[in-house]
């Protein structure tokens, strides 16, 4: 096994035990970048010289007994909405030509303090306003979509060109690409991880979180990221927490909600079969399955778009008027549509969200978590715009991908995407676990227990 193939947990242990140096790990990852990045296009920029220099510094610190913890000396990638001092934050858009960040975002500063090594910035759908990331190829089949908007971050982890990465999630943008590329994606509780220094899409729906090879890896990254920052108005004042799951697979007493509605409607049969099999595995570990009814499903689509569209348009108001030609057509149309939305519609969406949060809180008193598909279909072909379901219903690809992930953004509850197999075409399937606000430890415990019963996750073939 090459060092780039190691999970974060395994790499951290090898570095701690002096069996692997940060320089060896960085060199392995950067060699992998040279091999596969021309085909995948996961990165906007890679600064190999900076990465190697930081690896040498990490190696010296560790040799001197100044080991900072499990992220020290581990290569990472950041979605190119996340500010790093002195580096461009392009948001994969021509609108940002010439931009350079003056200071680190909170999450970049925390990861740097933990000793993580930045490999580069990864592609996003322009300004995170989309679910495909068209610049980037799927790590399992480059002719398929990577998912979005954190497509580059998910592909980098899936292909071994980063040991872990960060993405952002406004309607599924961590979990969708994680599911489509066979890696783990965590959207934390709204406000648990600060967003200061991150380009916004929709301030009341935006989250930032880790994309990793394993659930245990996600817990390590979350432990470094979580914590209050007064510069983010939505940041929660929470105590320092170690999110690493306890060893073992016993889930006795855990109540797992299995939706009767919404989450298994208009879902590919292979996706449904893989997810239901994984849910049965949770039951085999001792969990009790409970049928649940997802509330207010008829309002989900309108509420998501009723919040996101006007907030995104407000953020882009100046550049939309001064340089509209610099936006890609699909993003410009959505931003212009936001200017036509009445204030009353936005207020009704806020009301709907308040009612939805109340009803989800009621439902989550009956169960500890909910298990469901992360996305209704595996990665579609690049350029495909529609999915036709068995009953003849036709759905836009982005609407299909966001349909099962947006409830967690509207309500702010945490959600974890875990790979649960491959379809007949060899494309990954993801299961989504959703929990109570600040219930990350329960999700991580369940996801980790499930993964311990499966073979170690393999990297994508990556061309």
UniProtKB/TrEMBL annotation:
Domain annotation Amidase: ranges: 25-444
Residue ranges of the region described as Disordered: 231-251
Protein's name in the database: Amidase
Source superkingdom: Bacteria
């Amino acid at each position: 096994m090459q060092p780039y193939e190691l999970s974060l947990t395994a790499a951290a242990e090898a570095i701690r035990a002096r069996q692997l140096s940060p320089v060896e790990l960085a060199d392995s990852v950067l060699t992998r970048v040279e091999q596969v990045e021309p085909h995948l296009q996961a990165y906007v920029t890679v600064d190999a010289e900076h990465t190697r220099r930081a690896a040498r510094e990490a190696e010296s610190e560790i040799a001197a007994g100044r080991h900072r913890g499990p992220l020290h000396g581990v290569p990472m990638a950041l979605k190119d909405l996340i500010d790093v001092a002195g580096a461009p934050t392009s948001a994969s858009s021509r609108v940002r030509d010439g931009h350079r960040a003056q200071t680190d975002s909170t999450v970049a500063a925390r990861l740097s303090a933990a000793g993580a090594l930045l490999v580069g910035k990864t592609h996003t759908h322009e300004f995170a306003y989309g679910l495909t990331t068209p610049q980037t190829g799927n790590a399992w089949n480059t002719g398929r979509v990577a998912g979005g908007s954190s497509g580059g971050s998910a592909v980098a982890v899936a292909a071994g060109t980063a040991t872990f990465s960060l993405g952002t999630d406004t309607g599924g943008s961590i979990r969708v690409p994680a599911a489509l590329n066979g890696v783990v994606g965590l959207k934390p509780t709204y406000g648990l991880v600060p967003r200061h220094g991150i380009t916004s899409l929709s301030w009341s729906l935006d989250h930032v979180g880790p994309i990793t090879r394993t659930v245990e890896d996600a817990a390590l990254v979350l432990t470094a990221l979580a914590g209050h920052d007064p510069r983010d108005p939505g940041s929660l004042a929470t105590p320092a927490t170690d999110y690493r799951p306890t060893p073992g697979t016993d889930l006795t007493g855990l109540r797992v909600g299995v939706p009767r509605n919404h989450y298994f409607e208009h879902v590919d049969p292979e996706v449904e079969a893989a997810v239901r099999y994984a849910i049965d595995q949770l039951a085999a570990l001792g969990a009790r399955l409970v049928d649940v009814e997802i509330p207010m499903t008829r309002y989900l689509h309108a509420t998501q778009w009723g919040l996101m569209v006007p907030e995104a348009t407000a953020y882009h108001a100046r550049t939309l008027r001064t340089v509209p030609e610099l936006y890609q057509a699909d993003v410009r149309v959505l931003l212009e549509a936001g200017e036509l939305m009445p204030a009353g519609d936005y207020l009704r969406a806020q009301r709907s969200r308040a009612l939805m949060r109340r009803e989800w809180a009621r439902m989550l008193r009956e169960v500890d978590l909910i298990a469901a598909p992360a996305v209704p279909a595996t990665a579609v072909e690049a350029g495909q715009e529609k999915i036709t379901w068995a009953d003849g219903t036709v759905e836009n690809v982005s609407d299909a991908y966001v349909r099962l992930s947006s409830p967690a953004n509207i309500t702010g509850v945490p959600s974890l995407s875990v790979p649960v197999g491959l379809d007949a075409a060899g494309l990954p399937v993801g299961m989504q676990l959703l929990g109570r606000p600040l219930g990350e430890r329960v999700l991580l415990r369940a996801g980790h227990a499930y993964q311990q019963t499966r073979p170690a996750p393999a990297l994508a073939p990556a061309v």
